């Protein structure tokens, strides 16, 4: 599967027969003891022509090794960004296995990423990191470089999107050979209309797309040593114009501003000049120069180390010669010292004889002087002792006087303290009495206050009840007035009807009074005649009204 995928990505025809032959086996096991690397070199890598997609090839290699080697700790960059850092590592690493990237290339890459983020380069921070790195190893592996960039140590304060865009920009420049890219307007060759396109400048071609996602490619401008670029004056309402002349076509392009126009003209002219002299892209040439400079410095360092070793060897030889001479001088000096020692010993013996006699006389005289000095010292000590005793007697007298005065002062202070203590006790008793009186007064005030508060609460409750009863009586009064008005209206209506009826009867029948059936009870007589209700009916109605009023209360 690996061989087939490699052949597919590298555009090499796959030969399964060669694979089977290289790894053939029989009933007893594999016949060939050769590994996979000889097959890879002979049947795949030797057939590569260079017309393959390097990004897809790198992506397949990344798939093979990333899962096993990529750190499990969370990173500030995505897997896609980690893949791009891995590809950049393969481009900048040294040409020896195992692959490492030296501190100089790490500094170059971090500077490019920092510039792409628009941040300032922290040289002091990197110098500290470089010192710590040089003490432990020569460089970093690909996975350590991914951890370094993903940890955010040199991109503090930047969000994930900014770091991702910076890595993508550096990847486009170093791996995809994108020297410059951006939106500009291009004039069509047929319809002569202006369309916005995304231009991508590479070492020998300018491609333009519909948008920056590079999915819809609209054309290419092939560059060679015969191409040229020149600025154009503004026309047809378009500004910041410049012209790219090739052998078969010319292209009119409009930049967004004068700065972009000048940058594009300078970048295209630089690319054409490199094509004329046959130089590689700037970043590849810079990488080669950095590598040559490192090799030169390494060679100079090795030569310096060789010279230091030679000087050290010569110095060691000189040290050995000097050590031999020093030993010879020490032996001669030892012999001379021995002879001098013998001569001095003879001289010392003679001096000792004379010295002994002289010493005896000195000892006798010294003893006499010591005896006189001892007697004088004893006398002086006796006199000094007498003076000390007299001084001590005076001090004892003064001490007794001081002690007596101190006892008198102590007695005075003690009496004063006793008097102050009695006054303090009397004041404390008086204060306690005042405190008890205040406590009693406060308790009485609190009780009176509580009683007044209770009376106020009872009065408020009684007032609330009276207000509610007043509201209820007001409602009942309104209802009684309404009933009274209704009864009044009925009486007026009945009176009007009766008057009208009586007028009609009087008109038709004279003063004849109608005989009407009625109750046996005596009727109420009004100035209009018999009343509409009897006393029993009025009492019944009054009881009914009182019952309704009691029910409403």
TrEMBL record:
Alphabetically ordered keywords of this record: Cell membrane, Cell projection, Coiled coil, Cytoplasm, DNA-binding, Membrane, Nucleus, Phosphoprotein
Protein origin, superkingdom: Eukaryota
Principal subcellular localization: membrane
GO molecular function, one term: DNA binding
InterPro entries: EF-hand_SWAP70_N, PH-like_dom_sf, PH_domain, PH_SWAP70
Entry keyword annotation includes Ligase: no
The keyword Nucleus is annotated on this UniProt entry: yes
Coiled coil ranges: 283-504
Compartment list: Cell membrane; Cell projection, Lamellipodium; Cytoplasm; Nucleus
Annotated GO CC locations: cytoplasm; lamellipodium; nucleus; plasma membrane
One Pfam family this sequence matches: PH
Domain called PH: residue spans: 177-273
Subunit structure: The SWAP complex consists of NPM1, NCL, PARP1 and SWAP70.
Task of the protein: Phosphatidylinositol 3,4,5-trisphosphate-dependent guanine nucleotide exchange factor (GEF) which, independently of RAS, transduces signals from tyrosine kinase receptors to RAC. It also mediates signaling of membrane ruffling. Regulates the actin cytoskeleton as an effector or adapter protein in response to agonist stimulated phosphatidylinositol (3,4)-bisphosphate production and cell protrusion.
Protein name: Switch-associated protein 70
Organism of provenance: Oriolus oriolus
